[in-house]
Amino acid sequence: MYILVLIGYLLGSISFSYIAGRLFGKMDIREHGSKNAGATNVLRNVGVKAFIFASVLDILKGVAAVQLAKYFYPEQDLLIVLTAGAAIIGHNWPLFFGFKGGKGIATTVGVLLGLNAPAALIVMVTMAIIVYITRYVSLASLVGTALLPILIYYFVGANIYYMLFAFIVAIMAWYKHRANIGRLIKGIESKIGEKK
């Protein structure tokens, strides 16, 4: 049954930001802007349509990985969270794209939607408000992922597998954003819509 974890990783490894860069901008998004294969870099360097394409499909692959595990093994919490985590790892370090991926936020939202929709909605609304007020996508991502353990505990309860998943995913997201954290502290982080 743990073949589903591998499937989750392979699903996550489909880099829709890379595909969006090729389809909409005829470019390798990993060679432009922040050089990150993520939706925010797509937005800055390719445009809104490409951003929507990448974001929606990155979310959906996260949902798909979780729902696949839930469909076949609905009572196996460990398997479900391992498959969810594998999808995020696949996005961050994709097998199909030289292990150069994004920071996993859209896919994290997707797996959270699959695990617990109310928690995911709170994260998305919180992130949207922070981006609207501050224009910092990175800050929104950091706050959104920091909320994961709290929301999982509130909506799911003290399930050891779900709680460990929430903490590990939050740590992984903050690790991937370590350069952003440094720029936020220095006040030099890029804002959405900011002209260079």
Summarize the structure.
The protein has 11 helices and no strands. It has helices at 3-12, 16-25, 39-45, 48-72, 77-92, 105-115, 117-134, 137-146, 148-156, 160-176, 178-186.
Order of H and E elements = HHHHHHHHHHH
Task: Quickly give the structural class.
Answer: mainly alpha
Main sheet: strands, sense, barrel: none
Overall morphology? globular
Q: Residue-averaged pLDDT, rounded? A: 94
Number of strands: 0
Number of helices: 11
Helix content: over 70%
Strand content: under 5%
In angstroms, what is the radius of gyration? 16 Å
User: What is the terminal-to-terminal distance?
Assistant: 49 Å
Low-confidence stretches: none
Give descriptors for this structure.
single chain, 196 residues, mainly alpha, 0% strand, globular
Description:
This protein is mainly alpha-helical and 196 residues long. 72% of the residues lie in helices and 0% in strands. Helix 4 (48-72) packs antiparallel against helix 5 (77-92) and helix 7 (117-134) runs antiparallel to helix 8. The longest helix is centred in the first third of the chain and has 25 residues, at 48-72. The chain is globular, with a radius of gyration of 16 Å. The relative contact order is 0.13.
Set out the fold topology.
Blueprint: H1 3-12, H2 16-25, H3 39-45, H4 48-72, H5 77-92, H6 105-115, H7 117-134, H8 137-146, H9 148-156, H10 160-176, H11 178-186
Helix pairs in contact: 1-4, 1-5, 2-3, 2-4, 3-4, 4-5, 4-6, 5-6, 5-10, 6-7, 7-8, 7-9, 8-10, 9-10
